[in-house]
């Protein structure tokens, strides 16, 4: 029987499968398609350029052995890269690349020029029509390490940030993922790392961007049909800092494009720094392949600052603003605003403003009034027990029923709502929410959150439940 591309490739695959781990086989070989066989040259189609680079880097030897077994010493391997095309009607196009000489497999010329590749790199930060290849780092110099006070709550993240700034791309903290609750300094620390790198390595291209802006730029590039330019632009950055990466949740296109950029940068020893308001394990609607990359480096948490750090932050702020404040007021503020540094700073600013506009001394009474305002407006931490109680009362059942194993629809829905609100209003992980609401696992909670999201958009009655409960829990 004569050989076909498929039969040759299937034999190669059988050999490769026996010689590498099943995970690697699944990831790197299952997506490949054999396309044609001519003159002892087997063409295989791979999903992306990154994929091709990875195969060449890691599996070229085994590919060579497998192919030589099938086609003899003169075997050639040609990669056909399916370029994901921009949105719209154009046909996907391909780029053919011969396997490298490193493999001693014989190579052939690249025969398809990249039609869509423009000769000039497009900078998505630049307004169309204005040519500017200089990349502004978008860093805020006031957010530096000096102004980021160290405490127990941020020691790991701050030290990792310093290590990364000393050797960008050269530590195992790549990516460095900084995560923590609202107003705890994620953005500040992200900038500080970038600012420090710029001081130490002025030649490096550093770019800070919020995930929101990144998404807008990506959408814009799709509209303008220059998605590849967008990708190429980000691939030349040495240090990429992306703030609030959890905002990519549910945005499949942006996640895909970020995946390619991330892989390219990581592969080339470039540094990636990400911030998020949750740990990777608690991110919802982010593709598994991205989540697993987020976990490659170090995930460092910013916790609530302890009392001493809060006092130090207040004093530092007062010192920088040239304001004096009695010690008992500093202590009062530190004792009463504990979970959000932005609010702590806001209270200080209000206090100073009130006292200077009204020409009043800063007194403990004034401080109390202002803190009352702040604390009232602060989202109250609710416990999972409290959420279960509110949800059960609302549906007129007891907490044991809500937690029971029954599949009765109204009970399942109540349980799912409790899980959804526990995710929304507490910092507990999915696993811990599951174990507190009827001994369920992490996947069940994830499913519950998605179901509630879906039902609230499709079912009017259900949306009312969500709104009512939301009100009760935020009173
Ligand atoms: N360790 C610290 N030392 C001094 N100031 C700090 C520290 N941590 C945070 N801040 C200040 O607290 C404010 C809030 O910080 P930042 O904006 O970085 O928080 P965030 O975690 O990114 O918040 P969000 O979740 O809203 O994005 C900033 O003004 C920042 O300078």
Automatic annotation (TrEMBL):
Residues annotated as binding ATP: 183, 185-187
Entry's Gene Ontology molecular function annotations: ATP binding; DNA replication origin binding; lipid binding
Record-linked Pfam families: Bac_DnaA, Bac_DnaA_C, DnaA_N
SMART domains: AAA, Bac_DnaA_C
Domain I, interacts with DnaA modulators: region residues: 1-97
Domain called Chromosomal replication initiator DnaA C-terminal: residue spans: 383-452
Region Domain IV, binds dsDNA, annotated ranges: 356-475
Biological process terms in GO annotation: DNA replication initiation; regulation of DNA replication
Compartments reported by the entry: Cytoplasm
InterPro entries, per the entry: AAA+_ATPase (IPR003593), Chromosome_initiator_DnaA (IPR001957), Chromosome_initiator_DnaA-like (IPR020591), Chromosome_initiator_DnaA_CS (IPR018312), DnaA_C (IPR013159), DnaA_dom (IPR013317), DnaA_N_dom (IPR024633), DnaA_N_sf (IPR038454)
Domain AAA+ ATPase as annotated: residue spans: 172-300
Keywords recorded for this protein, A-Z: ATP-binding, Cytoplasm, DNA replication, DNA-binding, Lipid-binding, Nucleotide-binding
Domain of life per record: Bacteria
GO terms under cellular component: cytoplasm; plasma membrane
Domain comment in the entry: Domain I is involved in oligomerization and binding regulators, domain II is flexibile and of varying length in different bacteria, domain III forms the AAA+ region, while domain IV binds dsDNA.
Subunit note: Oligomerizes as a right-handed, spiral filament on DNA at oriC.
Function per UniProt: Plays an essential role in the initiation and regulation of chromosomal replication. ATP-DnaA binds to the origin of replication (oriC) to initiate formation of the DNA replication initiation complex once per cell cycle. Binds the DnaA box (a 9 base pair repeat at the origin) and separates the double-stranded (ds)DNA. Forms a right-handed helical filament on oriC DNA; dsDNA binds to the exterior of the filament while single-stranded (ss)DNA is stabiized in the filament's interior.
HAMAP family the UniProt entry points to: DnaA_bact
Membership in a protein family: Belongs to the DnaA family.
Protein name in the entry: Chromosomal replication initiator protein DnaA
Organism: Aequorivita soesokkakensis
Gene name of the record: dnaA
